[in-house]
Write a structure and sequence with these properties.
This protein is of the alpha+beta class. It contains 5 helices and 5 strands. A 5-stranded mixed sheet has the order 1-5-4-3-2. A hairpin with a 5-residue loop joins β2 and β3. α2 runs parallel beside α3.
Length: about 140
């Protein structure tokens, strides 16, 4: 999922786990996730922190906020889908960190499906642990 000419590149804390989480998303959400990562996150990186798309979770962990609708994501990405996709709500949270022009994807959470609360807090806690394990080489 890299974009030619981007100032940023994507890497994964645990690629197998990340793509397992991606495979649990509905197909429309997977498609929108790909567009958002390639056309928004890679293109704008840390500049997204100036708006609602990127939120600091402290300790170097960030939440890339995809949503609130497919139309909003496509508009932000300046993307026109060749396929008819309904303008439904979408709330995906991608946990990541930024280092040396690399965006490391740590995990994701489907907030549309599971809502906020304990389950989301647990996913953030797991992302923190996974990032710490990666950083310490454990």
């Amino acid at each position: 999922m890299s974009e030619t000419g981007s100032l940023w590149s994507l890497t994964y804390c645990d690629e197998t786990k990340f793509f397992r989480d991606v495979s649990d998303l509905p197909s429309d959400s997977r498609y929108v996730l790909k567009i958002a990562l390639e056309s928004i996150l890679l293109a704008q990186g840390m500049d997204l922190a100036a708006g609602p798309w990127l939120k600091s979770l402290r300790g170097g962990l960030w939440e890339f906020r995809i949503g609130p609708s497919i139309k909003a994501v496509f508009s932000k990405a300046n993307f026109r889908s060749p396929l008819p996709i309904p303008n439904t709500r979408i709330l995906i949270r991608v946990y990541c960190t930024f280092r040396n022009r690399q965006i490391m994807l740590v995990g994701l959470f489907d907030k549309q499906r599971y809502g906020s609360g304990k389950r989301q807090a647990k996913s953030i806690e797991n992302a923190r642990k996974q990032l710490l394990t990666f950083e310490t080489g454990g």
